[in-house]
Amino acid sequence: MVKRILMQTYLWVLLLLLYAPIAIIIIYSFTESKVLGNWTGFSLKLYGSLLNTNAHHSLMNACINTVAIAVIAATVSTLLGSIAAIGIFNLKARSRKAMGFVNTIPILNGDIITGISLFLLFVSLGITQGFTTVVLAHITFCTPYVVLSVLPRLKQMNPNLYEAALDLGATPMQALWKVIIPEIRPGMISGFILALTISIDDFAVTVFTIGNQGLETLSTYIYADARKGGLTPELRPLSAIIFIVILVTLIVLNLRTDKKKQLQSQKTK
User: Fold this and answer.
1) Distance CA 2, CA 19 (A)
2) How would you class 262 by CB atoms within 10 Å of its CB: exposed for 0-12, middle for 13-18, buried for 19 or more?
3) Phi and psi, residue 139, nearest 5°
4) How far apart are CA 137 and CA 132, in angstroms?
5) Which of 174, 185, 193, 195 has the largest count of CB atoms under 10 Å?
6) In the prediction, which pLDDT does 142 show?
7) Non-local CB neighbours of 5 within 8 Å, separated by 6+ positions
8) Is residue 12 classed exposed, middle or buried when 0-12, 13-18 and 19+ CB atoms within 10 A define those classes?
9) 241 and 122 in one domain?
10) CA angle at residue 103 from 97 to 107, to 5 degrees?
11) Is the Cα dihedral 140, 141, 143, 148 positive or negative?
12) Do residues 195 and 107 make contact, with C-beta atoms less than 8 angstroms apart?
């Protein structure tokens, strides 16, 4: 009994530490005070100000750049990571283990090391840093996460399905598209969402590859804003919106997964 109470207390304290800061930001996004922690009454003024592109042109540009970079990087890394996962899965056991180890290194490697390495690479190749280099950098560190998301789905797949499709007259591309892709689609979706989140959240790699052409992402904007002595109040409603969008997306995906599992269990019965 005492052990259960201690475990539940530990769990609730952990959840409180994780979500209390987010809850505070969401609560104070509904007041127009410029200082976080100073409640001046309920107001949607900060949300209206956030949507005013003329008043916060640089912030909205940073958000647009962040979303554009994240979508492009997540899409390309999902394609590359899925193809790489299929290739790794079809290797011999020893080669598969070696490639899995190589794929894990960029994940375990510090972001600042990745950022410096890519910075030196772009400088040595004479590539002007800007939007393109940031996208390439994000694709580089997002792809290994997609590989890790897709590989478990390949291991769960019946290995005879692909061979059966070929025996029935399908070309390798048709078998890939109609047999393997549907089997690994949940892993691809998970990898895409993970890559999207990591790209939006990244700062260390972005700051080394963004150059000095005036390009800003949300992370670099917040960093520059904090160095000025404070944060723009409109960042509170923006953070709340991002959190709610991610939360709703996860809930929808989990509900769809549960429905599919229920349908599969009903079919097996």
Assistant:
1) 26
2) exposed
3) -60, -40
4) 9
5) 195
6) 92
7) none
8) exposed
9) no
10) 130
11) positive
12) no
Query: Cα(16)–Cα(23) distance, rounded to whole angstroms?
Result: 10
pLDDT tens by residue, 174-216: 888 888 888 888 889 889 989 998 998 888 899 999 888 878 8
Cα R_g (the chain), whole angstroms: 23
Q: Of 14, 37, 21, 15, which Cα lies nearest the Cα of 243?
A: 21
DSSP conformation class of 129: P
pLDDT in tens, 77-92: 999 999 999 989 888 8
Structure-token pair, residue 136: 């390439």
| 44 and 176 inside one domain | no
In whole angstroms, give the CA distance from residue 65 to residue 224. 16
> Is there a single domain that holds both residue 93 and residue 124?
yes
Rounded Cα distance, 79 and 262, in Å: 29
The one-letter amino acid at 45? K
Please check whether residue 18 lies inside any domain of the structure: no
Same domain, 73 and 194: yes
Within the chain, residue ranges assigned H as helices are: 2-27, 45-51, 57-89, 93-108, 111-124, 131-156, 160-167, 172-175, 181-201, 204-209, 218-227, 235-268
Domain of 49 in residue numbering reads as 40-55+235-250
Distance CA 28, CA 240 (A): 10
